[in-house]
What we know:
Arc Repressor Mutant, subunit A, 2 domains, two-stranded antiparallel sheet, 8 strands
Amino acid sequence: MDKPLKNPPPYPIASVDHALRAATILQMEGGATVSQVAERLGVARSTAHRLLAMLVYRDFAVQDEDHVYRAGPVLELAAHSQSLVSRLRAAALPHLRRVVDLLDETTNLIVRAGDTARFIASVECRQALRVGSREGMVFPAHRTTAGLLLLAGLTEEELAEVYASDRYRDRPAERPDLARLRAELGRLRRNGFAVNQERSERGLVAVGVPVRDGQGTAVAGLSVSMPSVRYDARRLQALVAALDTAAQALERDLAERP
């Protein structure tokens, strides 16, 4: 039996969520000013300043001489400005925003690390009922649209290594059925896109396509997420076409960057 779906808590604490998202921004992007954090979180500058001051106090952040906040010693994966994740995110954001302008649904960029998928960028749409930002969140790869697409790019041996039984000795219920997973990945390779209907979160549908490097290897997934009540299967072809266009434009941008 797989791990239960990830659902937001019934009584979310906004200040905690803001602090965690601020820490994620610093970790993945290398640094940000008070104004930038305030804009990203949708809070006042004074609120952002207090959040960052607390992160500094707890060593989750440091402030340099230019008043830029960066990841502190507690964040083990503090991102360098030229890291793959940072470059991917910087290149992808304009394309994510264009997809949001076109489809008016929240759009995401996801990478895979082992058997998990991590959202490294998320641009929310403007609709009142919408999927919120998933930036910084981590899900089992086989439960997300982009995670499945990235798993589909692995060889049989690589997939077996990712889901080797000894890796799940202490959590056997989280290991997917490999026969079923292989069959699903085969279908995804043929289709070139994936659809996730309430697989990672209740009430959410996502459609995604891969983003490839110059050698044709999938390095990330580009997805659009929406409330399930708004998903119409008759729009699937249009959704995939918009994502494919954005993914191809992102691939060209990545090819031009050193």
